[in-house]
Amino acid sequence: MKNSILLLPLVLAGCSFAPHYQRPSTPPAGQWKPVEGWQPATPADDRPRGDWWTAFGDATLNDLMVRAEAHNNTLAQALATYRQARAATKEARASFFPTVTADGSVTHTESGGARSIVQGGVTSSGSRKSTNYSVQLGASWEPDLFGSIANTVSNARATEQARLADLANARLALQGELATDYLSLRAADAQIASLTATVAAYNRALTITSNQYNAGIAPHSDVYQAQTQLASAQSDLEGQKRTRAQFETAIAVLVGENPAVFTLPSIGIAWRPVVPDVPVALPSAILQRRPDIASAERQVAAANAQIGVEKAAFFPTVSLSADGGFNNGSLAGLFASSASLWSVGGQIAETLLDFGARSARVKQAREAYNAQVANYRQVTLTAFQDVQDNLVASVVLAKQEGYQRQASIAADKSEKSLLDQYKAGIVAYTDVVTVQATALSARRSLIQAEVDRQNAAVALVQAVGGGWQAADIANGAEASRADAMKAAQQP
To answer: Per-residue pLDDT averaged across 448-457, rounded?
Structure first.
């Protein structure tokens, strides 16, 4: 019987009142909805892997990504939050072990004795004086009989893992935003170059109409129309310059630099947009690759462990303590055996009546778990939506770009033909104005279609959880998780 009592704490130490954790189910899907013209790409060995942005073939973009990784403040905040969660896990784990304290003191006392006032001050006689020296060590421990500490540690560890996933998600979001802003800036460069050429062409057209008017061949209205076209194109050009400036300042903030001193040289018509093929994993693999899904799932696990913490509050807490030390009036005899003292003790505490407070906390924990389950499922469905939408966008935008290219080529030819006919006096200038507006619109639409395809590729990369490679798609986001761990270990 005595042995059974001694073994009881060891048996209870394995108790946990947290529900058995299982990852919440999500709507199953074996493949993506078919998209006409799209086939799953098979990445070759020379395709980009973790550094997916290198597929766009732009050295400046590659350099900006490195600078953003080192200096972006949002990423630094996410990293600090993860390190904070990691420290919280260590703090929770320390509760498994006893707390040891040390104390030392010296006390000098004086009491009693007669006092008399004499010239020069106060004197005393017959007082009692004593000095006491003390050194003590103490230890206290609360055994985890009902799993409260274990579930607290599980909660902290799952929260830590969620913060690590948040760090990976912040990194992916930063990369996507930087790539989108940079590609949009280069598209603005192309628009500026196109509009600059258009303004020059419209200036020449204005000169032609003015000469025609001065020669009495054309009415004054042709000059007005040419001036209107020119001023409108000049206004559009200034608007594009403003757009480019906004993208440039946005990039400066992303790489952690002051926009007032940050510049990116324009490349003008040298812009050659590259649109990489993005291999897309099966829906089940997306669950492993997306850091936001990983974060949501770990928050479910943390909420599940918290239920166990709240349930353990229904049971008594047991505290064990031990103290030992030396106490003596002489420093020389402080550590003599006769000066030693020690004590051991135990305490059991139980709440007998709290009017439903503990039950309410358990119910709160259960509902918090249900809320996290719903959030996990919603995040998962949104991830599937992101991939499906960007699959469609990639295919449709590729077709649109082809049509816009045909339209732009045809419009340029028509513009040149009508302008030649106007010079020969065959057509009215109103026809030239119409075809010029059509050609300008077609050129600008083509540039926009090109950058839209690039941005759709960036969005698809983010939707599938980052860079791609055959092993990464098969095994989940282990590579990106390792990178995040490595970055998080830095002081």
So the answer is: 93
